[in-house]
Amino acid sequence: MLKTTFFFLFILLGFVFLPFTGITQEATKLYEGLPPGNKTTENKEKEVVTDAGRRALVNVTVPDLTFYKAQGNVKSNAAVIICPGGGYHRLSIFDGGEDVAQAFAKAGVNAFVLKYRTNTENSFRSFEPLPLMDLKRAYQMVKENAFTNEIDTNKIGVIGFSAGGHLAAMSFTPINPIQFSFNILVYPVISFKDEYVSPKLQSRKILLGDQVSEDKKRAYSPELFIAENHPPSFLIHAMDDKTSLVENSLVYYQQLVAKKIPAQLLVYQSGGHGFALHNKVQDEFWMPSVIKWLQLNKIIPN
Q1: At what angle do helices 163-170 and 130-144 cross, to 10 degrees?
Q2: Entry pTM
Q3: What are the tens digits of pLDDT across the range 6-20?
Q4: Domain extents for the chain?
């Protein structure tokens, strides 16, 4: 009777813990105590549904990082930090964060979802430097825990969506550079120069305010700062994107080519903006192409 009881207890515990083995860990705050730049310890974060029907977070004042460990038979020691989009005033952290992390993990790539701070009224001394500060801190945390998480510090990359793409691309500029090993940008906002800013775009205004000098526009236009040591890059965009014009990816790609940086550009004829993993208009998933590209560049094994 006792053996039978222990047997059923073992089976029960197995079912309880099975779904959670290795797939994700608890979110870890980027900073202990009051995050630098915050005025208050108040957490104003809440979930909303956008006009497009997407779940998102607004008023993010306490940034954190969530780890999705590589799964499957062929695991790599590479890692990617995911920067969701949302125009710097919200985070599309579910389809453009958690879903993406799970897809990378299933493909054998360690993934980290970054919940960086968004512009929130009366919460920060100055919002402008905070998203990039959060990304740099996330990179430091991944490096600090690389041995424990079986990650090669020479294979830590970044992927950004929309405004998160701008954030990712800014990590290669002089403002606050980060030594990422690869770069993936999905329908990114890149340039803050007037000719590449759509009338629908709010990212520049949200990050830098209403009155932006020409010098500031240039400083926040990463296509102007492609260096010889820029890492391999993969860009994804749709021609009919009305929020982040496709020219953002085109001008970035042209600069990569000019500097002979290994790069690949995937431009869809249709798809609009904010399609996350799945371009529903063309019924295409881009993740298989990204995985092949990572293999081509010897970032993950075949």
Answers
A1: 70
A2: 0.91
A3: 333 333 333 333 333
A4: 57-296
Question: What secondary structure, in 3-state letters, does the chain show?
Answer: CHHHHHHHHHHHHHHHHHHHCCCCCCCEECCCCCCCCECCCCCCCEEEECCCCCEEEECCCCCEEEEECCCCCCCCCCEEEEECCCCCCEECCHHHHHHHHHHHHHCCCEEEEEECCCCCCCCECCCCCHHHHHHHHHHHHHHHCCCCCCCCCCCEEEEEECHHHHHHHHCCCCCCCCCCCCEEEECCCCCCCHHHCCCCCCHHHHHHCCCCCHHHHHHCCHHHHCCCCCCCEEEEEECCCCCCCCHHHHHHHHHHHHCCCCEEEEEECCCCCCCCCEECCCCEECHHHHHHHHHHCCCCCC
CB atoms within 10 A of CB 141: 19
Range with the poorest average pLDDT among 14-23, 173-182, 194-203: 14-23
What's at 100, amino acid-wise?
Answer: V
Pick the closest to residue 275 from 233, 250, 239 (CA basis): 239
Look up the CATH architecture of domain 57-296.
3-Layer(aba) Sandwich (3.40)
